[in-house]
């Protein structure tokens, strides 16, 4: 095996013997892969024979550890029958998913992510990475300080027309059960007369890494903000549902709104620390979800990535 000391991504050439089983290889090298993730923030394994979705699901499960059931998702996924293993989010191919940390708005989030490439796109579609420690260090202190003091606030409006419905997000069709879940997880709820649900929650924006104690910029402040939406999408949604009816939006934890310049600056700092590696068929990518942010860039053609959420923890 060879590895490059490129942060936040280490690379491994698996190069197993012809006919070797990818699941067995991943299981046998799980400790080494975990060590690389701990040292670099992410590791990309290249050369495995992931010739089907089923093989990719088994391989992701082999390295994932404790799988985590997703709740409060903001885009649909297909579950694959193995705890914590899903399709990648169904998000328009021509729209980016900006840098974020998976489920950083929730009371429980995965520490480890695993992705396996079944079908690479014809172009684009990179799952890019950024070191959350470097991003935090590069953001202006005047921007960071109020977020560190107050946290960040996410508002969501679930309706049957845009995004994911509350039934799918919370895994229940029982409003009382959803209210119970939200009360237990610090989420404010408001039910509309037409059965729609609006929620709000405040979470820390800066997190001490559970293993190292290093301070990390851990949130989805820029990704889920109205100013990151394509202008035509934002205009349509605002006209259709009103400014408070956007499917999601973010604020400072004290409720202060964010202007475009602040959101743009966060995304610009992410870009300065972004590492990109185009997908190849059979790639396996493991990511420390606290230390390393990830994104999904626009693409053309078919793209199938199996995703795993593992090692849940309370931020």
TrEMBL record:
Annotated ranges, domain TauD/TfdA-like: 7-305
Cofactor: Fe(2+)
GO molecular function: oxidoreductase activity
Keyword Oxidoreductase annotated: yes
Gene Ontology BP annotations: antibiotic biosynthetic process
Keyword annotations of the record: Antibiotic biosynthesis, Iron, Oxidoreductase
PANTHER family from the UniProt entry: GAMMA-BUTYROBETAINE HYDROXYLASE-RELATED (PTHR10696), TAUD_TFDA-LIKE DOMAIN-CONTAINING PROTEIN (PTHR10696:SF56)
Name recorded for this polypeptide: TauD/TfdA-like domain-containing protein
Organism name: Streptomyces pilosus
């Amino acid at each position: 095996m060879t590895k490059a000391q490129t942060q936040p991504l280490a690379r491994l050439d698996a190069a197993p013997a012809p006919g070797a089983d990818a699941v067995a290889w991943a299981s046998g090298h799980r400790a080494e892969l975990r060590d690389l993730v701990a040292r670099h923030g992410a590791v990309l394994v290249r050369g495995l024979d992931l010739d089907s979705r089923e093989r990719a699901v088994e391989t992701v499960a082999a390295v994932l550890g404790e799988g985590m059931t997703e709740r409060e998702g903001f885009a649909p996924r297909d579950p694959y029958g193995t705890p914590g293993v899903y399709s990648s989010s169904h998000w328009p191919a021509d729209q980016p998913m900006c840098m974020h940390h998976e489920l950083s708005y929730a009371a429980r989030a995965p520490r480890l992510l695993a992705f396996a490439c079944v079908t690479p796109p014809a172009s684009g579609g990179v799952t890019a990475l950024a070191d959350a420690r470097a991003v935090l260090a590069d953001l202006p202190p005047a921007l960071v300080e109020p977020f560190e003091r107050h946290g960040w606030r996410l508002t969501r409006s679930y309706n049957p027309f845009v995004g994911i419905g509350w039934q799918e997000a919370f895994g229940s069709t029982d409003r009382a059960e959803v209210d119970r879940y939200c009360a237990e997880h610090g989420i404010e709820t408001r039910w509309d007369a037409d059965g729609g649900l609006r929620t709000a929650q405040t979470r820390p924006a800066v997190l001490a890494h559970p293993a190292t104690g290093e301070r990390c910029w851990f949130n989805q402040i820029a990704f889920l903000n109205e100013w990151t939406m394509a202008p035509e999408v934002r205009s349509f949604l605002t006209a259709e549902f009103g400014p408070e009816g956007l499917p999601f939006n973010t604020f400072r934890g004290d409720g202060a709104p964010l202007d475009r310049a602040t959101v743009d600056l966060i995304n610009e700092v992410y870009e300065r620390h972004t590492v990109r590696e185009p997908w190849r068929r059979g790639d396996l990518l493991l990511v420390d979800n606290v230390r390393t942010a990830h994104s999904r860039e626009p693409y053309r053609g078919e793209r199938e990535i199996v995703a795993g959420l593992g090692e849940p923890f309370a931020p």
